[in-house]
Amino acid sequence: MSKNDVISADNNLTKKDFRSIFWRLFTLLGSMNYERMEALGFLYSIMPALKKIYKDDPDGMKEACHRHMVAFNMTVAPAPFVMGIAIAMEELAKKDHNFDVNSINAVKVSLMGPLSGIGDTFFWGIFRILACALAVGFAQQGNPIAPFILLIVFNIPNFATRFLCLKWGYQNGTQALVNMEKSGKMQLFTHCAGIVGVAAVGCLIALWAPISCPLTFTLSDTEIVLQDYLDQILPCLLPLITTLSVFGYLRKGGKVIKAIIAIVIIGFILGVLGLIA
Predict the structure, then answer these.
(1) Full-model pTM
(2) Hey, is 235 helix, strand or coil?
(3) Which of 154, 234, 248, 272 is the most buried (most CB within 10 A)?
(4) Environment class of residue 166 by beta-carbon count within 10 Å: exposed (0-12), middle (13-18) or buried (19+)?
């Protein structure tokens, strides 16, 4: 085995082990349940590393397995970062018997919130929407590559993030996140991501909800197009009002199916009356 393949000489962790962890993490949601959430998938993913770390310590292996069966839930893409940190901390726990093993789960729990916020914002709030928008554009033209565009645009940054986060988490441990928190970069990063996500949603409202008012009337021999005046107030005003109305209804606990039925009925009536187009 080449020296370049060995990542941790103490426990003989190799690049092959981390590749195995990378492929195993695709099963993270395979055993999702409401008692332990993603815990079993997390344990299964890091098992190759644990077997190397505790190869001569069966009791330590059992304790590690119990540790990682504690409830864990996170957006999948940044989850490998936590796996990398957990592996690094397990190595430290094996080496230093005075190490507080409770800190391993404490770190995992502390990272679930902020990293899930970033992951949800980017992968579900930005990349998914952009990928769908591009794919729908191709699909509307009858282009057969539309589904491939969706898969490529969404999955390339997703898979790259998983791979890099695993490596970064193991190499940098907890210090990286501590530095980001102290410098304020984490808050800035999350804030900027939120702005980009909201802007993307606004663009999609204008693109995918093309509601307009075709009403016209004549005043002093001048034809007045009502939509032109609405655009002067705010472009795409009707799509925005419709979207915010539905959002407000759902936020108050309304049912999605009822919202869809209401949109169909109201849209049909207003369309027949010629009030919207």
Answers:
(1) 0.62
(2) coil
(3) 154
(4) buried
